[in-house]
Amino acid sequence: MYRILNKETLAPTIKLFEIEAPVVAKKAAAGQFIILRIHDEGERIPLTIADFDRKKGTITCVFQEVGKTTKQLGTLNQGDLIKDFVGPLGLPTHIKNYGWVICVGGGVGVAPVHPIARALKQAGNEVIGIIGARSGELLFWEDKMRDACSELRVTTDDGSYARKGFVTDVLREVIEEKKDPVLCVAIGPLPMMRAVCNLTREYNLKTIVSLNSIMVDGTGMCGCCRVTVDGETKFACVDGPEFDGHLVDFDEMARRSAIYKSQEKQSLEQFNAGVTHKCSCGGEQ
Amino acid sequence: MTEAKITKKTIMPKKNPMEAQEPGIRSRNFKEVALGYSEEAVVAEANRCLQCKKAPCRQGCPVEVDIPAFIKLVAERDFTGAIKKIKEKNSLPAICGRVCPQESQCEKYCTLGKKYEPVAIGRIERYCADRELATGVLRQETAPSSGRRVAVIGSGPAGLTCAADLAKLGHKVTVFEALHVPGGVLMYGIPEFRLPKQVVQTEINNLKNLGVEILVNNVVGKSTTVDELMSAGGYDAVFIGTGAGLPYFMRIQGESACGVYTANEFLTRTNLMKAYLFPDCDTPIRIGKKVAVLGGGNVAMDSARTALRLGAEESWIVYRRSRNELPARQEEIEHAEEEGVKFAFLTSPTKILHNEDYWVKAMECLRYELGEPDASGRRRPVPVPGSEFIMDVDTVVIAIGQGPNPLVPRTTSGLELTKKGNIFADPDTGATSKPGVYAGGDIVTGAATVILAMGAGRTAAKSIHAYLNENGGD
Ligand SMILES: Cc1cc2nc3c(=O)[nH]c(=O)nc-3n(C[C@H](O)[C@H](O)[C@H](O)COP(=O)(O)OP(=O)(O)OC[C@H]3O[C@@H](n4cnc5c(N)ncnc54)[C@H](O)[C@@H]3O)c2cc1C
Ligand SMILES: Cc1cc2nc3c(=O)[nH]c(=O)nc-3n(C[C@H](O)[C@H](O)[C@H](O)COP(=O)(O)OP(=O)(O)OC[C@H]3O[C@@H](n4cnc5c(N)ncnc54)[C@H](O)[C@@H]3O)c2cc1C
Ligand code: SF4
Ligand code: FES
């Protein structure tokens, strides 16, 4: 069992947990993820490592409530226990001094991009951060990102905070203005990552994206997370989750992410109707 | 004396039948299919045994269980004695009695088999083991603590056996398991209806009672490495039993379409994550009306039978050789047939076709015929030119085999691998090229059987014990 040491509500549907998991914290690196399972009847869901503290032995995850499991996770509080928590999984971001790089975080993607920006800056890069959300209410970690980057630009789709526009609008400006960045890292909803890749392709700017394909084991055993990259089948959990965005088949990825749409809806409806967790695992009712 | 002679003379030509759930009922539930012998049936079956001096059956057993001896004890109704005899060689009899391919091992060589059906050795073994589980497992003796520590990676039959044997020898054992439950394929692969998970968990509880610590949610190669376990971790030796968990693909067009599963995913969702209880359990699975399972081994049979239980209207095994070459256990093939699984032999897909939403709608297949025997001694399937045809299906499960997961091999220094990426280990000792590191089971042999994995775990435990004694404590 893994204890939640700290809970923050970053936005109405976005929550942060700091979880006690010393084994994972000891090895965690930017770009990697964990898989957790709330209780015995639960699904295994992957969440990116948004921060880690090796001394305290904790992992921080930020998640958006999109369905049954993330909603149920959101009902847990400080002091509660999570049944299973495994990691760090996936390959870490390749960190080195590239010169200057751009880190783009959209929506809940700001959380996973944060440790990457921080590590890139520590490696000597000049890091321009771009973060955006649908509205100001959904934006979080502006301060943390400002610390992690050399320079930070903020945008909201509806203009309710900072400037109005998509992260791709800001990205184009930055590329035009500063010329010749060496690398772009983009993490966020799939349409955003695809839009970023379409833009950076114009500039021949290598772009790393982090893929959220559906996973089960996270160790390369089931093949559920397979994605096509440069015409080859890759397992996002062990070969990724980061890939060269210009080579990713985003259409296939989007289709595979929607495989369980009707079941996800059914599960959420049942949860919302209050039929919850009636198992014998000894967890909360 | 006279009695024994009479039994020999009036030998029953057939095995005593084992009760099973009716095919029509069981093909829609996940409860165990084969229900096991009654005491009367098991004694009657034991009495079929001729007690052959040479015991050819024993040579067919990969771990050389003293078969006539335990069968004799069963005939005498000494069930405690019988299970003790079995456990001298086989530490997981409740599991092996259910899943061993007896027809190609012990029962294949049984003298009776020359004229009649062989003695139902597997069913007798299962009875003894189940009876022990039901009446409470005998407390096993453990040697005084040696003060030495061994790490076992992976909790499939190889790891479980190695851990149990080492614990009995007095060593402190920690098992590292990547998933959230121990048991390996026994938990995530082989379905409930063939191997109830309760049976596996009882074995695991026995292991815990021996003082073995099991750390689930620990991926070696990620959370820690073999090298670290041996240095900072303070382990004196390591056993690697990480299995063959990497799914192979057909490498044909359309394998990433929606509705195409690897057998590993299909079975893991169903067995480990209990998707058959969705939405009471959170993990979903999607089953169509007509399912095609590619392959002909146990994994394929399990997938095809699972598909029926999940509600498929038709479930097909698509196999490029003929019925005679099916590598699955005989009993599973028969059970699958009884349950209504259909077979397309001498057939293999060349392409998976999808609709505009990229959901599977059909497979383009080729017919095959059998040619000359290949390296495995089986007749090689050769495609019939121009025999393409379309098979309408909406779910495809790929069950054509698994390879070694590279996580541990890649992160361990000084470990010699085979061309296929399996760990090289001496078959007589389990020793790898790295001192103090042993390996066994599917990670060494490639996908094989529970009994071979168990045997390899046992062999390695012996060698590790000897290694620890030679390299005395500091
Ligand atoms: C490597 C990786 C890192 C991730 N990091 C984060 C993160 O830091 N923060 C965050 O909010 N989300 C993250 N996700 C996505 C998160 O795992 C899903 O939102 C979550 O599984 C949804 O579960 P649910 O039951 O609440 O919703 P559901 O109703 O089940 O599904 C909602 C959506 O989530 C996706 N999804 C469903 N099940 C899974 C699954 N088992 N694995 C992956 N995706 C699934 C589906 O495509 C679906 O569109 C990550 C996913 C991956 C693969
Ligand atoms: C569906 C199916 C049906 C089968 N039916 C039969 C049958 O009827 N009869 C028969 O004899 N055999 C059968 N087999 C084969 C048999 O199950 C295997 O040969 C046997 O389980 C191999 O045992 P093992 O201990 O080597 O590995 P496994 O049982 O594969 O166990 C390996 C364990 O190691 C864990 N692991 C892997 N990597 C790591 C890591 N890096 N860190 C920590 N843990 C790790 C895995 O999660 C797993 O729990 C079947 C196999 C399948 C898949
Ligand atoms: S070969 Fe058959 S009949 Fe002979 S001892 Fe073995 S089980 Fe009994
Ligand atoms: S999640 Fe199973 S292989 Fe990647």
Structure explained in plain terms:
Chain A has 2 domains: 2-89, Elongation Factor Tu (Ef-tu), domain 3; 100-257, Nucleotide-binding domain of ferredoxin-NADP reductase (FNR) module (Rossmann fold). Helices cover 29% and strands 31% of the residues of chain A. Chain A is built from 9 helices and 17 strands. In chain A, helix 5 packs parallel to helix 6 (190-202). In chain B, 35% of the residues lie in helices and 17% in strands. Chain B contains 19 helices and 18 strands. Chain B has helices at 2-9, 23-26, 39-46, 56-60, 67-75, 79-87, 93-99, 106-109, 121-135, 157-168, 185-188, 197-209, 226-230, 263-272, 298-309, 330-339, 407-411, 442-445, 450-470; strands at residues 19-20, 34-36, 149-153, 172-176, 213-215, 237-240, 246-247, 260-262, 290-294, 314-318, 342-344, 347-354, 360-373, 379-383, 389-392, 395-398, 402-403, 437-439. In chain B, the strands form 5 sheets. A 5-stranded parallel sheet of chain B has the order 5-4-3-6-18. A 5-stranded parallel sheet of chain B has the order 8-16-9-10-11. In chain B, helix 16 (330-339) links the parallel strand 10 and strand 11 (342-344). In chain B, helix 3 crosses helix 5 (67-75) and helix 3 crosses helix 9. FE2/S2 (inorganic) cluster binds next to loops of chain A.
